[in-house]
Every structure is written in structure tokens, then in C-alpha cells.
Design goal:
It contains 11 helices and 4 strands, in the order αααααααααβαβββα. By secondary structure, the protein is of the alpha+beta class. The protein has 2 domains: 2-164, no CATH class; 167-240. InterPro entries: ATP_synth_OSCP/delta_N_sf (IPR026015), ATPase_OSCP/d_CS (IPR020781), ATPase_OSCP/dsu (IPR000711).
């Protein structure tokens, strides 16, 4: 991935910035607290130029908590700027790239790092990656507020919003071995019938030998557990329960 290569090339700069901050931190006393996120921070306009006409936009689903609030704010800004797909792609690429870098992972979790140091590092990364204005400003906002360590969870919640925006429903299918193409096709068709018209099923396959056989399907906050493991547990409980002879 091109972005991953560009990201790796910025690591020496991050190390240099971190080293300078570490040496200066000796002069500081006390731990640096993470800034408290307030509503004005979340309402910040990520675009550099104001829209000529205010566009009324609502989130397709309500999300709660810190990550949900940030993800919702980013969604609104991206939709208004008509860059939702681009922002989604950039944010997910950024998260995947950070997973491959121990240096940057530690950098994001280090709350003792000064705000200006975090912002300087993120500015360098965003400029090198050539991110769009909204993605750039969002990541800078996280750096300013000491929330970079939450970016993966925010990206996950943001993905929920973009899928809902496109009318997509994620279904997680867990099996012992990967489903053959024909069985996967039949599974998607069955789930599509269950969900109904107007929505599209996006299937994510997971392999878990611990379920012993059968499958587990999760979608729309529903779980259909048809695994051999669950059936065996149910049978075990049934055999352990005392038999009421008088009722026979």
C-alpha cells in the first residue's frame, strides 16, 4: 500500500521529535493530563473553506460515548464537504498503517508528550500522506486533545456510520473453516432475504475452530448460534438437570 510506505518514511521524524520532547520533559514537573473534550471541540469545522450554503445533515444512526461523538462529528463534516468515501479510506488506511508501527503506536499512547509535539508530528504525517483537509484537521484535533490513542475505535464507529449511509448491513459469519464460494453465495442470499429490500449485506467471514462445527451469524444486533459447541453445551445442561419422575 502506497500510504504505508509514505507513513514508514515519516518514522525517523517522529523519533526525532519524540527524542527532543523527552529531553525537555525533564524540566517539567507533574503528569500531563489529557484535555477534556467539550462540545465546542466536537463542533469544530474540519473544512478549511466554509460552504457557500449550509447543508442540513443528520447522522444515519445515533452513536454514543467519546468515540461515537468524534465519529459523528467527522461524518457530518465529510458529508457536507462531499468527501465521505475519501475520508473513510484515508482514516482506515491511517489506522492500518499505525498498527504496523510500534514506534507510532507508543507515540499515540504517550500522554506525557506535549501537545505541540503531538501536533507537529501529526502535521508532518498528514502532509506527507497528502490527506484531504477534513482528515488532516480531524487527526490534528485528536493530537491537540490527546485522543490519538482512541483513533482505532473512532474509525470503527465512523465505519458504522458510512455503512448505514450506504444502506449496508454487516454480517459476521463464523465457521470452523472458510465457506466455499457457493455456500458463501447462498449464505448472502439468505441473509439478504432476512434483511429485506433497500439494504445490502456485507459479509465478514471469521474462522474459529473452537465452535467445533456449524456456524454463528451476527448482524443487526442479533446472534444466530448454530454451532456444534453450543448444541453440545445445551445437551450437557439437559443431561445434568434432574429428571422429574413424578411428572412422567
Amino acid at each position: 500500500m502506497a500510504f504505508a510506505g509514505r507513513f514508514r518514511s515519516t518514522l525517523p521524524l517522529i523519533r526525532k521529535i519524540s527524542a527532543v520532547d523527552s529531553s525537555s520533559s525533564v524540566l517539567r514537573s507533574g503528569a500531563v493530563r489529557s484535555p477534556t473534550v467539550t462540545n465546542p471541540e466536537l463542533s469544530r469545522n474540519y473544512a478549511t473553506a466554509p460552504a457557500s450554503k449550509e447543508q442540513r445533515v443528520k447522522v444515519p444512526i445515533k452513536l454514543y460515548g467519546l468515540s461515537g461523538n468524534y465519529a459523528s462529528a467527522l461524518y457530518l463534516a465529510a458529508v457536507k464537504a462531499n468527501t465521505l468515501d475519501k475520508v473513510e479510506s484515508e482514516l482506515l488506511d491511517f489506522v492500518e498503517a499505525t498498527k504496523k508501527s510500534t514506534t507510532f503506536s507508543l507515540f499515540m499512547k504517550d500522554l506525557s508528550m506535549r501537545k505541540d509535539t503531538r501536533v507537529k508530528a501529526m502535521n508532518a504525517i498528514c502532509a506527507h500522506a497528502k490527506f484531504s483537509d477534513i482528515t488532516n484537521n480531524f487527526l490534528i484535533l485528536l493530537a491537540e486533545n490527546g485522543r490519538l490513542r482512541n483513533v482505532e475505535r473512532m474509525a470503527t464507529r465512523f465505519k458504522e456510520l458510512t455503512m448505514a449511509h450506504r444502506g449496508e448491513v454487516k454480517a459476521i459469519v463464523t465457521t470452523v473453516i472458510p465457506l466455499p464460494p457457493q455456500e458463501e453465495k447462498e449464505m448472502i442470499e439468505t441473509l439478504q432475504e432476512m434483511i429485506g429490500q433497500g439494504k445490502k449485506v456485507i459479509v465478514e467471514q471469521k474462522v474459529d475452530p473452537n465452535i467445533l462445527g456449524g456456524l454463528v451469524v451476527e448482524f443487526s444486533q442479533k446472534v444466530f448460534d448454530m454451532s456444534i459447541r453450543t448444541r453440545a453445551r445445551q445437551m450437557e445442561r439437559f443431561l445434568r438437570d434432574p429428571v422429574n419422575i413424578e411428572g412422567l
